[in-house]
UniProtKB/TrEMBL annotation:
Residues 8-99 form the BDBT FKBP like N-terminal domain. Residues 220-247 form a coiled coil. It holds the Pfam family TPR_19. This is Putative fkbp-type peptidyl-prolyl cis-trans isomerase. TPR repeats lie at residues 207-240. It comes from Triatoma dimidiata (Kissing bug). Keywords: Coiled coil, Isomerase, TPR repeat. GO terms for molecular function: isomerase activity. It comes from the Eukaryota. PANTHER family: FK506-BINDING PROTEIN-LIKE (PTHR46512:SF10), PEPTIDYLPROLYL ISOMERASE (PTHR46512).
């Protein structure tokens, strides 16, 4: 019965497992960087309503390196595998969006991992570049959330490296700018603004970032501030297509707002 108590639950309660077979302790569990082979069995829990992007077919040889998951299901496995012993088999319930899904997972084998925090600076920076490039490719494929998590990982690694150092700061700002674009696409406009602020604090004439801030402000209906940002863009690039297209609409919204305000004030003080 799936409703029985669980042996482990993630802190955000999105993932929980009940151990079916304990497996055996061989001195370690998977950590970041551990190559793993996993058996996935969905045969008892097939659900045609599971979106294709979340569906995981049954397989005896699913290979995954912990920390390198690039789909929502793989990121769930990333978290789950660090709790498992070799040959452990468990029933897993996981939540994605509004859906709750079940699957059987068995850890067949795993190798040694190398957590990022103990890597030397060169290897750590190479990993940053790898995450950034993977994020770009995923974004181009339209996988915005997956790209976001790759860029986020790159940003986290750069914090370990001291992101403000001269050799790292340009990459950190690119990653933040890319994260801002992902947040725009995901509808998280306040988060996008916070990321844009980090970039523009160091690069106040970054046109891409100014446009992203303008877009976020416009989406939040803060038309006055959006107008300021679009004008900044046109001062830097007078032929910028996006700014030229959006400026008339935003200016119209500002003009109408002031017209409504003036009309309200006039009514307020009109005693006739």
């Amino acid at each position: 019965d799936i409703q029985q108590s669980w042996d482990w639950q993630s802190t955000d309660k999105r993932i929980q497992k009940r151990i079916l077979n304990k497996g055996w302790w061989n001195g370690s569990r998977p950590t970041e960087g551990s190559p793993c082979i996993v058996k996935i069995d969905t045969s008892d829990y097939e659900d045609v309503n599971i979106p294709a992007v979340y569906r995981m077919p049954s397989t005896d040889q699913f290979k995954l390196t912990v920390g390198e998951g690039e789909t929502e299901f793989e990121r769930i496995l990333d978290r789950l595998l660090t709790t498992m012993d070799t040959f452990e088999e468990c029933l897993v319930e996981y939540k994605i969006d509004e859906g709750i899904y079940n699957v059987k997972i068995k850890l067949i084998q795993h190798g040694a991992g190398t957590p990022s925090y103990i890597l030397d600076p060169v290897k750590k920076f190479n990993k940053v570049l790898h995450c950034k490039e993977r994020g770009v490719l995923l974004y181009k494929e339209g996988r915005i959330l997956d790209a976001f998590y790759r860029f986020k990982r790159a940003a986290q690694l750069l914090i370990f490296l001291d992101r403000d150092q001269e050799q790292y700061q340009p990459v950190y700002l690119i990653v933040c700018n890319n994260l801002a674009q992902c947040q725009l696409q995901l509808g998280n406009y306040e988060h996008a603004l916070a990321l844009c602020a980090k970039v523009l604090d160091k690069e106040p004439t970054n046109v891409k970032c100014l446009l992203r801030r303008a877009t976020a402000l416009e989406s939040l209906k803060d038309f006055e501030k959006a107008l300021v940002e679009y004008k900044k863009v046109l001062q830097l690039e007078s032929n910028n297509k996006q700014a030229l297209e959006r400026l008339p609409y935003v200016k119209k919204q500002v003009d109408e707002m002031y017209a409504r305000y003036n009309a309200a004030v006039k009514r307020m003080f009109n005693f006739n």
